[in-house]
Amino acid sequence: MQLQYSFSLYLCPAADDLASWRAEIPGKLTSRAEALSGPTTPPGKRVQVYNAGGCETGPGGVATYGKATVDRADAFGFKWNRTGRSSKHIGFNWSGSDA
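^ thats the sequence. predicted structure below, dont judge the formating
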């Protein structure tokens, strides 16, 4: 078995108000999403779940739900186009216990 690897630039910015987010590995993956809203969502607010069950967000975490405006990948044996499907943004802390 031969292992393959590559180094890639990974971009994952989100709007400050979480109205949209995206992820990109140039030439391999492109994903963009817009937060869900609707008639019962207050202006400027997002459809979010606080303290979701399980370990999905961790204690005090917030999950923001959205719809993928673009979701395509073709890399490492995976290939898909999930544009128009659901998307979720979950923030997390990149620091460890020594931070």
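Residues 20-90 form one domain.
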